[in-house]
Amino acid sequence: MKSQNITDWVVQVFLKKNIDRVFLYPGGTIAPLVNSCISAGIKIENFKNEQGAGYAALAYSRISGTPQVVMVTSGPGVTNLMTVIADAYYDSTPLIVITGQIGTKDLKSRAGVRQRGFQETPTVDITSPISKSATLLDTVKKVGKYVPEAFISSMSGRKGPVILDFPMDVQRSQSKALPATNIIFQQTPNLPNKIYSLSKIIHRIKKSKKIIILLGNGAHSLNKSNALNSVIKKLNALVVTSFLGVGTFNTKHKNFIGYIGHTGNYAANIAVSECDFLIVLGSRLDIRQTGTEVDEFVKNGKVLWVDIDKTELANPRIKASFSINDDLKNFLNIFSKSLGDYQSKPDREWMKKIISIRNARLDDVPTKNNKIQPRDFMDILEEQTGNIDTIVATGVGCHQHWAARHLSYKPKKKQHISSGGHGAMGFDLPSSIGASMLEPKKTTICIVGDGSFLMNIQELASLKERNLNLKIIVLNNARLGMVSQFQLITFGDDPTTGDVEKINFSKIANGFGISSAILHKKKDIVHKVKWLLAKQGPALLEVSIDPLSDVVPMLLAGKQMNDLWMNDGE
Length: 570
What we know:
CATH superfamily of the largest domain: Thiamin diphosphate (ThDP)-binding fold, Pyr/PP domains
Radius of gyration: 25 Å
Distance between the termini: 77 Å
Largest sheet: 6 strands, parallel
Strand content: 15-25%
């Protein structure tokens, strides 16, 4: 067998997995692999910061459903990427992270030494707790084994990031011992679908009159599932989602009530608190969904919890009456067949009440002043984008929840991506760039607050270079709204967050060569939104919103889901 360059072989693995581009910020210890990518015709997507590259890859992965490759150099390259890795891990996004590393000779001689090589960090040690696996590729044999396995592992079970730490000398070496790339992926076993009885569950369901289906982040895998729709019809179930589950179901469907939890819709929280059977599909029921009073969660009903992650099921925060460890598609197929031609007879008066609460729109009720209110703005944005194929990416803060509450979403048609478990400000701009790179014909809208936008604002340069059809909406309230709201509720004052220097983001965008405008007055909302959507290429609209607008209602610590803070002075 002919000797071959190690990095050339790795790139052949990329090509076998249909990787046509890699996301990176360059550096010395990753340069050999980058050069092999260039030689093979793989596109180099270079960003202005490792976090920018990582979030673009993350969004590309999340929307495409396939793991993308992000590459960074050792030391600060790795540490700058840590936020992205954590985000991918907690929100179950497949990602292949390849980090450069100093040579194996220095690594092996570092016993007790703080740092042996320049820009050295113990990558495997610091990334292991926030990844599905982290491996040092310090031998050719490990390269041959773990590079292909990374693509399999990141997609198996509960998805997530896989870290490959690649020493410089191994990248530069050659070998005859690497496996042929045309056979390395033929070893993936096809696991048979589970078969089980649901008779006890269905017996209890048939006694229930107030059934709700909760769709979590895992339900994105269902797309437009016939089995899910069949179950909803048979059970006459109302549908809610988790925050990350927003977009798994058509939010304009007559049975959809909203998303639940800390910043969820009022009607959705009330519905879950009063239901007598809750079917949880692909959600981990974290504290931001259930609140702190877990003993009161669905206190008058039963909970069926279905999840791919058996560890979550084995360590529940809430008491589940039934737990099933399975893929959602397989479960729903079995469930739908097991129900047969059953047709539930729900409590129609209760359903009517819940739908009436939903229609009353008690979320973020606009105050009566001359300042732009978040819900008013979102309503007009919804009117102007209602029939457009759209991807909405947000940062973290008040804007994140206003966008989730008041815009419509539909699988594959109007998609929603945001940072959930890690809650990382700065997710917004680079993720929206990654989404727009994948779906250039769709309108991608980046909705961001003035605080979150500053975290990765340098990626405006990356946006301009690509001239993407990306529209940025900066809701500028000169306030770190979400934390300010928490401080005011808890301590009565917001000294660190409530009086932020107002920045002219329109001028900053112009400095990067991006068209921009500022919206100050209510009467101009329609005109300025139309301008933004009609503008060719990237554009930014800075919206001066009422700085006193809060996210209302809110599920606070110590409160049950039907006892929400309404900002009524109490």
